[in-house]
Amino acid sequence: MAIDYVLRLPCAVRQDFPEPKLVALVRYLGIAEFALGKLRQAHPQHDPRMLAEQCTVEITTTAADGTARQVPVTVAQIFSMVAPLGNVREHCKTCRANVADRHFGCIAKINYPISREAETWLLARLPDDENNPDLQLLLKFLADLGIDGAPVDEQRGRTQVFEAKSAPFRTWGGIFDRRKITSSQLLHMLAFGGTIGSEQARLYTRMLGLNTILSEPHPRSDQIEQFKTFFCAVVMAGRLNAPVDVDA
Asked: d(Cα 72, Cα 59) in Å, to the nearest integer?
C-alpha cells in the first residue's frame, strides 16, 4: 500500500509503452527488486537466480473487464515480464522528470503507513509568520475549496495507513483570530485529489514554499525523503508543464 504518483512528461520511453503498461511494469520491477534484495540479505550464500525462481509474490493484474485481482508469480517471472524495460531505461539518465534519480524515476511512491514524524515535517515547512502572503493564500485556498482533511481522517483508524490516530496541526494568531492547518488538510490537498495539473503544481510550489526543495539536503528518514521526492515532482510538474497523477 502506498501513495503512488507519476510525473507524466512525454518522452522517448512513452513512445514505446502506453502509459498504463509503463506504470504497471515499473511497479512490478520495484516489487521484484525489493523482494530479491530482502532475500539476498537473508540468504547471502545462495545464488540470486535460484532465489528469484523460488520466491513467490503477489501482483495486482487488471482483467479486460477492469476487475483487479491478485496473482501469485515468482520473482524470476516478474523480471522476465519487465525485460522490455531494459531496452529504454538509459533514456532516464538525463531526463528532468527523473525526480527519484533512478531508472524510470518519474514513477514513484510514498509508502504506508505515514509516520507522525513525516506529518510533523510537512507542517513544519509552513511559515511561522501569520502574515506571510503564501500562508495567507494557503489558508484561503483550503477554506474556499473546502479541503478539510476528512478523506484522510477516515483512514486514521487503520494502523497500516497512518501511525497517528489524530492529525498533527499548527495554529497562527491569537485567541480570537486563531487559524489552524492540519496535516490531514495538506495530505488531502496533495494526495487525495487525483491529478495535479501544471498550473496547480505552480500554485502548490508557491503556497508550500517548495522553490528550494530541489537543493535541500537529504532528510533524516526514508519516508521524509519520499515526501521530498514527491515535492520535487510537484515543482518539476510546474516547470515542465506536465501533470502529476496521484493515487492514494
From this structure: 6
Q: What is the three-class DSSP state of 152?
A: helix
Q: Are residues 122 and 217 in the same domain?
A: yes
- From residue 8, how far is each of 1, 95, 98, 191 by CA, in Å? 21, 12, 11, 16
**Strand, coil or helix: what is 94?**
coil
Total domains, the chain: 2
Residue 103 lies in a domain: no
Alpha helix stretches (DSSP H) within 67-192: 75-81, 116-124, 133-144, 150-153, 183-191
Quick one: 175 and 63 in the same domain? Answer: no
Find where cell 532465489 sits: 51
Q: What mean pLDDT do residues 165-184 have? A: 92
Percent of the chain with pLDDT over 70: 99
Which pTM was predicted? 0.89
Q: Write down the mean pLDDT value for the chain.
A: 92
Residue 160 confidence (pLDDT) above 80: yes
Beta strands 107-111; 2-7: pairing state: antiparallel
Could you tell me what percentage of the chain is helix, strand and coil, using 3-state DSSP and rounding each to the nearest 5? 50, 15, 35
Residue 61: pLDDT band (50, 70, 90) is: confident
| Claim to verify: residue 214 and residue 151 sit in the same structural domain | yes
Residue type, 202: R
- 44 is in which domain, residue-wise? 18-87
Cα 236 to Cα 2: distance, rounded to the nearest angstrom: 21
Rounded Cα distance between 240 and 166, Å, is 36
Residues 78 and 156 in one domain: no
